[in-house]
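Example record

One chain of 163 residues, shown exactly as stored in the release files.
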Amino acid sequence: MLRDKSLIPLSHQHQHALALCVRIDRAQPIPAADMEAWRAEITQQFEQEIKIHFAAEEKVLFPIARNLPGLKLLVEELAADHDLLRREFVQVEKGSMSAEELPLFAKRLSEHVRKEERHLFERLQQLMNPDDMTALGVSLQRALQEASQACILPSEVTRIRAR
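Predicted structure tokens for this chain:
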């Protein structure tokens, strides 16, 4: 199903998170010497986009979705994912996540994004009328206005290299 224009800003941010996950996966095994570059980039992406993204979903999207048929449990699961992922982002920022733990973190983040895209967003589009979707989009735009509009460029260490 095509993504409704009201959800596209969230989907674009999902693409950024997925790109980060792919780069982490392809960089395996990550040398310990490279962890500082990864830590800096992951922290930057969290601070400039993901933290704001989570807050927008929790303040705008989740309350609406909770009241729609069949979505309450999914929303509770997604909110729990946010809590776990926030704790993991803090571990990354503090330097307490190892290079060996980083792929599992990327897998959890990727699975969370795909769950929102494939399950939550699809059901929202099926259940909400066009006027409500438009109103949702306006509220999301306001909630996301603090997020960076610039693409975070990988460093020399964190970019994908040809094999």
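Notes: The CA atoms of residues 42 and 92 lie 7 Å apart.
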